[in-house]
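Final paragraph of the annual report: two paired records, presented back to back.
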Amino acid sequence: MPDSSDSPPTGADDRGYPTRARVVLAGLKASSIVALQIVLVVAALWILFWLLGKFWVVLLPILFAIIVCTVLWPPVRWMRKRGVPPAAASLVMMVLGVGVLAGVISLIVPSIVRQAPELASRATDGVHKLQDWIQGPPLNVKDEQLDNIVNTVTDKLQSSASSIAAGVFSGVGTATSILVTLFTALILVFFFLKDGPKFIPWLDRTVGKPSGTHVGEVLTRMWTSLGGFIRTQAIVSFVDATLIGAGLFILQVPLAGVLVVITFLGGFIPIVGAFVAGALAVLIALVSNGLTTALIVLGIILVVQQLEGNVLQPWLQSKSMDLHAVIVLLAVTLGGTLFGITGAFLAVPAAAAIAVVLRYLNEQIALRAGESLPPEGTPVTAHKSVPDDDPPPDAPSADPGTATPS
């Protein structure tokens, strides 16, 4: 009578290997589990974004306050280390920040009001000249075609302007005005600067270990990354605005001061902001000073942006953030599409925060798996946890002739 222990297991052939049907079913089972997990994660993310949309009125001033705090915190920390009370140091920096902002506004607004009529008149003349050029050879565009093009462009600009105006503070209801939002952010800046260093210890005491330790570490890294991004963009934007502004003043382009401020602010929206600010400067130079000046302005902007993109920004951001330019562009596009100007402004900090979370999770996974992560920037082929030709250290040795498949 044959021994039942010698018979192959159910779903296996005579050699002990699983049948093809069993392999396929096992793959389907694993794929189904992974697909269900993905669906659950996507559903959780959808609920999270839905909640963010519901609480956007509260979150918007908090986000603005955190970004402002990253700029004001270094001098506040310097004063606190020298014995200045936290409340006094925070109040002094807030007064200085508001004063600088009010001074910039007081400088650019009168310039806009004074030069706007002249600029509008020159813009009208420029449109007429452009119309005459399009209707002449070699294009020979008819009046009806030109009217249709103008109407289409005008409608598009009007709809875009409405969308932009609505997206600046999307989610803020009629009862909550922009001034209330900014005032709330200002109050939050004071308390964040004054009591911010107490947050991580409070989180450790409240949440407990190890969760509090993990959350505190992630938040600390987010703060460091966000601060590095804001300070880096401020330096890059200042250099861009200074160099481009010098060229605009030398060429006597109208509204040069306003364009300098727009160039500086546009630098905080990577890629897109520089493009929009540069296009606006070239357009004003074309309308007011002619084609030659516009081409010179275009050349200055291209040179400055090449210097920024290839030398200055990579050098400064190498230690503050580790985001590829494609990720930055996609983040700005997605943020601007979903939330308008506010989304475009907050897109890169949000992407940097998500990157911090993913890197920390990768570190924890590697730690649990007993792996050592390679240094940042190391090629994939240059790091191997276990050599391909050597067995794992704890693998039992076996005679190849007696090895049996699992």
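The closing record of the year follows.
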Amino acid sequence: MNFYAARQPIFDNNNEPIGYEILFRNGPNNVFPSINADRATSQLLEGSQFYFELAELSNHKPAFINFTLNTLLLGYPFMLPPEHMVIEIIESIEPGKKLLNAVKALHAKRYRIALDHYRHQSAWRHFYPYIKYLKIDVSCTPLPEIYLIMKEIEQHKHIKLIAEKVENHQQLDQLKQLGFSLFQGFYFAKPEMLTSKMFSASELSITRLLSETVNEYVDIKKLTPIFERDINLSYKLLRYTNSAIFKRRTKINSIKQALVALGNQELKRFLSLTFAAQISPEKPAELIKLSLTRARFCEQLALNANSKKYVGPAFLTGMMSLIDAIRDDSMENIMDKLPLVDSIKQALVNGEGPLAHLLLIVQSYEQADWQAAQAQCHALNIDPDVLPLAYNDALNWCNEQMQVLACEMH
């Protein structure tokens, strides 16, 4: 599943971009969808939290993002750091006390604020001390009104004017003569479409939980709130914990009790199955099977090497080793979006570190390159004779998990 957005640069007098307006899209067509502004802002902010890095989307320049009155009052801008964005107050918002208080609070936290498609009203004067940009639609703002706006802000040297909808060179020259120094419009660039592979909130929650289970002792207090914020994940956990396979005498009555009852190993099994079921419903089952086999194989090798601290990370490294094929994205992009420890990311992206050596043994064994597998085993003080047994164990374990997974998906 993809997340879509578009960006349009804002240029200075030297044709250098000083920022990008980020525009919400809900598909590959480069047009604003027919949804209300609140929803567009909310989904764009959600995207910045889960699906892409805002700084990358805006070429490490300030991102100009539209906000409605509702999203301002709900404090949505505070989800993003002030150095990364400019808050655009959309043109449909009228000046008023609620808006002014919100603007003052944002200004106090060092957020930069722009008034989009600005049309002058005397009430806006109360906002001038807190405003960084006025964006003027030069396609529909009469010249006398532009002169009036310039006169109104003469005493506010910190306010900069941005000419929007600049269409041609003649218009640009005229605007420069008027005193504009910042410009946006089709003359410079049309909005450029950008696409990011989406991880759902549940997928990210599961990955975060998997990352926590790599530790020898799991912090139940830390895991419980993550489950409690995700109703679907909580439902699956409770159903799994209460299943007949565990033959429990008492029923589970809380998330915390369910986590304690499962224990670290069973919790890791549950999360790996849930992740596999969610992340690749349209991919061949063989990819999932190979991922689970690698996870178990890497884990067994880490145990054989007496590297307790690597057992959990080894499992997760093996499991994630095919995520680029499953997600149709580069490993580097995927690792940037997932809350995994650096040792796992280093192994998967750069092929470096002890976890990468464990994975290399697994890959060599899969390819029947016995010489390479044995050489890596010797380097890690692993007895090469354990490889067949560890591999068979991984295959049997994987087959068991696939049977459970088949039940979970139906």
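The radius of gyration is 27 Å. This concludes the annual technical report; the extension proposal builds directly on these records.
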